[in-house]
Amino acid sequence: MESAKVGKRGAIIVPARLRKRFGIEEGTIITAEEREDGILIRPAIVVPVERYTPERKAEFLLSTATSAADYRRARKEVRKLGIDPDSIPHPRRA
Questions:
Q1: What is the dihedral of CA 12, 18, 19, 24, to 10 degrees?
Q2: What is the span of the domain harbouring residue 80?
Q3: Could you give the count of Cα atoms lying within 13 Å of 31 in the half-sphere of its Cβ?
Q4: pLDDT in tens for each of the 94 residues of the chain?
Q5: Distance from C-alpha of 2 to C-alpha of 15, rounded to nearest angstrom
Q6: Rounded to 5 degrees, what angle do the CA atoms 93, 55, 72 make?
Q7: Same domain, yes or no, for 37 and 58?
Q8: pTM for the model
Q9: Residue 90's closest CA among 25, 78, 82, 80?
């Protein structure tokens, strides 16, 4: 067990040995979880989020069609997005 000091605005200095062990460096995002006996602080896992453009949505719709009827529905949905289905690269379904 190691101790740390709380500074201004609640900043906590994590001992260097622990920072190295857990890969915590300047700018690392951490989580602080309330526990019955205290606070658990650990590095956070950050997963990037993709924001889908209408073209990317159209590609998904057209590429994942499983039947000819499904493909026709996908083309109709793509047109509702204001996109020409033939302008999107995708495998064609008869």
A1: -90
A2: 54-87
A3: 9
A4: 888 889 989 999 899 999 999 999 999 999 999 999 999 999 998 888 889 999 999 999 999 999 999 999 999 999 999 999 999 988 887 6
A5: 7
A6: 30
A7: no
A8: 0.50
A9: 78
